[in-house]
Automatic annotation (TrEMBL):
InterPro entries: MFS_trans_sf, POT_fam. Keywords: Membrane, Peptide transport, Protein transport, Symport, Transmembrane, Transmembrane helix, Transport. GO terms for cellular component: membrane. Its main location: membrane. This is Solute carrier family 15 member 5.
């Protein structure tokens, strides 16, 4: 399979079809109505992100202290939930487009979202503080009921999150077809900047409430956020639902692969002749069931698969790092001059580089383009991000060795006293900063590469495959954690210890990140003749 360096990526303009311009002008909504729709979409996306981060930010602490899980199990549950929330927009979007319809799926997902976030407070509610009979016997939920409610709530919430992201807040709703490469990079930088700005508020506010002020009422905040999202959907349901063009679908894309395999088998039995690619067997003039244009688009998408596979491996390694850092922080001294710092608030340190680098990269890109008339290379950004992730893992390993040398102290977390290291948690700040820099550099650049190198008719499908690689990386990371835990479980001295969880994850993450520094060079060839000539700014 031929590959190229992404440094050769040229600016492309996505030209409008002349025949559709009058129709678009007639269908264009009034400015006031468009503004109302944009405000509603932003409110719903804000509520959805608020709910998601509210569930995730202290899930490890909740699993270990409330449900009695060990560190490894809690980290695996956290990764699986994040992966499910990443995969469900792809699956729910396909169901909405091909089966039930967008409006019906939207209401079903909103209901599931409501049910899921309503079940989680039931698990967190302190029944032992309210239900004590005359014989002073505590009545609380049994462990089995807690587990069923907890996992049922997570599953329902992940399906609801997927529906809201896929239907109300799809990337295609932002009209990116007429943007150059530099404009696309700017969009992705600011898009993820807004997402992380929201997460800062959540990690500081909800984490402190869940951990210190009212630990058992923390999950009521996502519940309240869902109520606001439901009200917003009800008030402007006709303006929120974005209707994308009927171009390609996941089902049609996978159909090309299945049809090609089928025709290859038939060819060796009954047919003769050669084709340049096995996918050409799916073309109508070769006996297949798909048009030549659609098959050619799928062939271009296939050339992106090595890039998606490398992103899957990268995500499998890098998604383990935040869970390991969380456990590492939980076992460090959180007391800062009498103030107990929320564990999840340390994630703000990793988000700050994201908030700083986006405006900085925007300025650098503007200056670089004004002098040399070329944009920043996605290759350079991705390589720099992978290096930051590898350095972050190495720094975390060194910090873990230092943490073990400090004497133990008692520390109260969510009503329970734990024996932790006396090393101040702020000494872990460098590894958080490096991790934030990695995400700020890699994520927008990967989105840019995926969007630009795919044909215009299947750009949405290519972004779905990128999301599948991200979600699959979370599941693969959880699987790696479990495998490492089982292997180290043979040694009694390391089983259930923090080193078995954190150091092993850091070692795996460091190795994978270092190996993936060459990932950006394994990109497919450019699409040919798809989008016209490059535009100038």
């Amino acid at each position: 399979m031929a590959v190229i360096d992404l440094t050769d990526l040229q600016e492309k303009s996505f030209l409008k079809q002349a025949t559709t311009q009058p129709q678009r002008a007639r269908r264009r909504a009034p400015p006031r109505r468009r503004l109302q729709g944009v405000v509603c979409v932003l409110l719903v996306e804000l509520c959805e992100r608020f709910t998601f981060f509210g569930i995730v930010c202290n899930m490890i602490l909740f699993c270990t202290l409330k449900l009695g899980y060990d560190n490894v199990q809690a980290a695996a549950v956290n990764l699986v939930f994040i992966g499910a929330c990443t995969l469900t927009p792809v699956l729910v979007g396909w169901v909405a487009e091909s089966r039930l319809g967008r409006t019906k799926v939207l209401y079903i997902c909103a209901l599931l979202h409501f049910i899921g976030t309503a079940m989680l407070p039931v698990v967190a509610f302190p029944f032992e503080d309210f239900y004590i009979d005359t014989h002073h016997i505590v009545h609380s939920l049994a462990r089995r009921e807690q587990t069923l409610l907890f996992y049922g709530g997570l599953l329902s919430a992940s399906l609801g999150i997927g529906g809201i992201r896929a239907i109300l807040c799809p990337l295609s709703a932002y009209s990116l077809q007429d943007c150059s490469q530099r404009q696309l990079l700017s969009f992705f930088n600011w898009f993820y900047w807004l997402v992380n700005l929201n997460s800062v508020v959540v990690f500081v506010g909800i984490a402190y409430i869940q951990q210190s002020v009212a630990k058992n009422l923390g999950f009521l905040i996502p519940f309240t956020s869902v109520l606001l999202a439901l009200i917003t959907i009800h008030m402007a349901r006709n303006k929120l639902i974005y209707q994308p063009k009927k171009v390609g679908s996941l089902l049609a894309t996978f159909g090309v692969f299945l049809n090609s395999l089928k025709m290859c088998c038939v060819r060796y039995r009954h047919l003769s002749g050669e084709v340049s690619s096995w996918l050409d067997r799916a073309k109508e003039h070769n006996g297949g069931g798909y048009s030549e244009a659609h098959v050619e688009n799928v062939k271009t998408l296939v050339k992106l698969f090595p890039f998606f596979a490398l992103q899957l491996l990268y995500r499998a390694s890098v998604t383990q790092i935040p869970s390991g850092y969380y456990i590492q922080t939980m076992n460090s001294n959180l007391n800062l001059n009498g103030f107990l710092l929320p564990i999840a608030a340390m994630n703000v340190i990793s988000i700050l580089p994201l908030l700083v680098l986006a405006p900085f990269l925007e300025c650098v890109s503007t200056c670089f383009f004004s002098f040399r008339r070329v944009s920043l290379s996605p290759t350079a950004l991705i390589i720099a991000g992978h290096l930051c992730a590898a350095f972050s893992a190495v720094v975390a390993g060194i910090s873990e060795l230092q943490r073990k040398r400090y004497p133990m102290v008692e520390q109260a977390l969510s009503g329970k006293v734990l024996h932790v290291s006396s090393m101040p948690c702020l000494q872990l700040a460098p590894q958080y900063i490096l991790l934030g820099m990695a995400e700020a550099l890699v994520t927008p650049a990967c989105s840019l590469v995926t969007f630009c190198l795919a044909p215009s008719s299947i750009r949405g499908i290519s972004m779905h495959f990128l999301a599948l690689s991200y979600g699959g990386g979370c599941f693969l990371g959880a699987f790696i954690i479990q495998v490492v835990y089982l292997v180290s479980g043979a040694l009694e001295m390391v089983r259930n210890s923090l080193v078995a969880c954190v150091v092993n994850c850091v070692a795996i993450s460091s190795t994978c990140s270092a190996g993936l520094n060459v990932a950006p060079s394994f990109a497919p060839q450019k699409r040919s003749g798809d989008d016209g000539q490059a535009s100038e700014d």
